[in-house]
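Agenda item 2: nicotinamide-adenine-dinucleotide complex prediction
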Amino acid sequence: MVKLAMLGSGFIGRFYADSIQGLRSKDRIVSIYSRREEQAKKFAEDYGCDHYTTDMEESIAHPDVDMVCISLPNNLHEAAVMLCIKHKKAVITTKPLGRNAAEAKRMLEAVEQAGIFNGYLEDLVYTPKFLKAYESVKNGALGRILWAKSRETHPGPHSDWFWDIEQAGGGCILDLGCHCVEITRSYIGKDIRPVEVMCWADTQVKPIDAEDNAIGLVKYENGAIGQFEVSWTFRGGLDLRDEVMGSEGTIWVNGFLRTGFDMFTTGKGADYVAEKAETNSGWLFPVGDELNELGYNHMFTEMFNCYERGTKPRETFYDGYLVNAVLDAAYKSVKSKIWEPVILDDWRGKTGVTKDSHLIEFDADHYLVKEEMTHYGTKKLILKEKATGKIVERIVE
Ligand SMILES: NC(=O)c1ccc[n+]([C@@H]2O[C@H](COP(=O)([O-])OP(=O)(O)OC[C@H]3O[C@@H](n4cnc5c(N)ncnc54)[C@H](O)[C@@H]3O)[C@@H](O)[C@H]2O)c1
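Presented output:
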């Protein structure tokens, strides 16, 4: 049994609490910190917490608390992490780890120096669909991964602080791009170094200082490309989609909209449909079990198992730091309009990786370009002569 302090009683704090204490779980939130007393009290009543407070340190230091779950606005993550270190409490933090890589690195170094358990709550690499797709990729079903794209777009966040660049640290690149970078990086290989980023961003719709739309490309040392598409102005709900292209296969994952559950209603009796749904009438795309489909259940199960076994979870503060470093490069590229290097002072994966060969051996004299069976019953081989570089076609009767 893990006994937690929850810091923050907002949107994600409640999603996390529903997951942590759902399905007859033995894990409990024993203390809740919220800056407003009535919110702390309400959360404590809803989730049966013994202790509530408006003093963050009191919640972290509470003697019953083993682990702290940070569900606060981005600008408060670092201070909360430092208090966890002061009181030697295990800590799990929502995304993004920091507002930038410098903040993330300070948190990473501090937890590692203190030797405390640290987990990065990137739920979208724990969704059942991701876990299955990832397993196939790992087993080689897609061959070499050439390109991995992740898209997260919705009509914009639900609280004031997200829209304030100082508190949030950025716009949709940071808020949503952090998910996409970790998803695509996982498909390409977390031991492969991200080297450069090219990113377009603009403020197309909202009266804010940060970007509300962006598209970015992340180049990896083995030649693979990660792509993210993010928006705070997309109309139609929460669009979560991944596409992976390999030399031997393809994966398309639709995470939230159009997942095979369509409903029509005139709106009578309709209420909550799914996160960021924009309407509750007409044709709708409800989500069967949001907690599970967004990965929260598998994420907390793995985090708590690792904590109890003394092992590292799939996602640690190191991953959070790496994601922040990639996104820092994206922000630089938006301004410079050129590829910007990913600055990683601490790289723990493979080094000296070279681009994989694109030459497929056919026979001693040829490389294979393509093989195709035509509709008129002829099999064609397209080959490249090694000696001359000439492309030739052979008909196989
Ligand atoms: N899928 C995900 O992983 C996911 C989804 C949404 C949000 N998040 C992250 O969770 C964190 C919180 O986001 P949210 O959506 O729950 O926001 P929210 O606004 O719904 O809740 C934030 C909580 O922090 C409290 N808070 C706000 N300002 C504060 C301040 N100045 N001092 C102390 N407490 C303050 C609020 O009262 C509330 O309890 C952010 O880092 C966000 O990026 C993650």
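Discussion summary: The chain is about 30% helix and 25% strand.
Owner for follow-up: CH.
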